[in-house]
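re: ur question from earlier - yeah i can do the single chain one, its not a big deal. heres the input i used so u can compare w yours
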Amino acid sequence: MAAGDPLSDNPFFVLELTPMASAMDVERQGKMLLAKLELGLEAAASYPSPIGRRTRTPDDVRRAMQALSDPRRRLAVEPFATARCIDAPHVGHDDDDDAVDIAPLLWWRP
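and the output i got, formated as C-alpha cells:
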C-alpha cells in the first residue's frame, strides 16, 4: 500500500467501509479481513478503489485499522472515501445521490 494515496489506498476502501463506520465497525471488519486473508480466501485478496481493483495484504489491513483509529488521520482520508469505486459502484455509498466527482482530486499525489 503506497503511503498517503487517498484514492487507491484509502483506509476506508481497504476495509470496504464508509465514513459512517464506527470504531467498533473498523475493528470488526479489520479482524474479519485478517482472518479471511490468513485462510487464503480469494475474496479478501483485493478491494475496489476509484482507480481499479487493488491487492490487499494483512499489512494493508493493519495500517488501515491504525489510520482509522487515529482521529486526525481519519479526518484526512474521509473526504476521499466517497469517491466512486471502479467495479463496485456502490461501495462507500448508501445512495447514488451521494456520489462525488473525483476529477478535481486527481491532482493530489504524495
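Residues 11-105 form one domain. not sure if urs matches, ping me
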